[in-house]
Structure to design on (228 residues):
């Protein structure tokens, strides 16, 4: 049974970097035909896809255009996890952040439990 | 980006009612559409993938159909446990995009 366990701080100061981790059990971070995505939800934006990382002979990343320049998604094969870093945060980045597995035709079939992140001084 | 227009934004049916939620894509996405159920404090749950395929373990009262760029999620007999917000999502092309959500409040 695949499970995703998220961790990270729930409060980040403006201009600092938001960092979250998603630990994967029951699957491999470098498995073929799956990707590990980050999605957030806020009242103003609804569900918003942020980016992904996946392995097909080498590692690839894709990021949502509005996030480019601020976002970094990394894989950690030693600990079988993925991480999200979002720099220069503002209150607009306040949201529930989710990691999710994109499994080919099955779309996002497994989700983490979500992390509420508030950007405030 | 592909826009997903979902309607209605809220529904207040009674237990046992047939519920229909619609999602329209701004351009062709073939069958690459998923439906999710989201309850407060929980992770979204995949219900339907590839427009009409039922995810394993999901009750058969949920079904999905496609007509061109219009997609429909139907709950044939609403149950109290179906109180949630439902989202559509296209995965035909990047960036993946979601509908605005339909909140189902049981009357």
């Amino acid at each position: 049974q695949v499970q995703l366990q998220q961790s990270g701080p729930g409060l980040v100061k403006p201009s600092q970097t938001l960092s979250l981790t998603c630990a994967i059990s029951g699957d491999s971070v470098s498995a073929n035909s799956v990707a590990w995505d980050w999605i957030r939800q806020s009242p103003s934006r609804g569900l918003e896809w942020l980016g992904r990382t996946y392995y097909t002979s080498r590692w690839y990343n894709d990021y949502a255009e509005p996030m480019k320049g601020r976002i970094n998604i990394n894989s950690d094969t030693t600990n079988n996890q993925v991480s999200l870093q979002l720099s220069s945060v503002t209150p607009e980045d306040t949201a529930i952040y989710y990691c999710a597995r994109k499994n080919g035709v099955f779309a996002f079939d497994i989700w983490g439990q979500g992390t509420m992140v508030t950007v405030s001084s | 980006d592909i826009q997903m227009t979902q309607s209605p934004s809220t529904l207040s049916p009674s237990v046992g009612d047939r519920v229909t939620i619609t999602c329209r894509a701004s351009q062709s996405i073939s069958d690459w559409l998923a439906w999710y159920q989201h309850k407060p404090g929980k992770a979204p749950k995949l219900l339907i993938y590839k427009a009409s395929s039922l995810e394993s373990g999901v009750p058969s009262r949920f079904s999905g159909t496609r007509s061109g760029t219009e997609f429909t999620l139907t709950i044939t007999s609403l149950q109290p446990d179906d109180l949630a917000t439902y989202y559509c999502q296209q995965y035909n092309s990047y960036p993946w995009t979601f509908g605005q959500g339909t909140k189902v409040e049981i009357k």
Q: What stands out?
A: The radius of gyration of chain B is 13 Å.
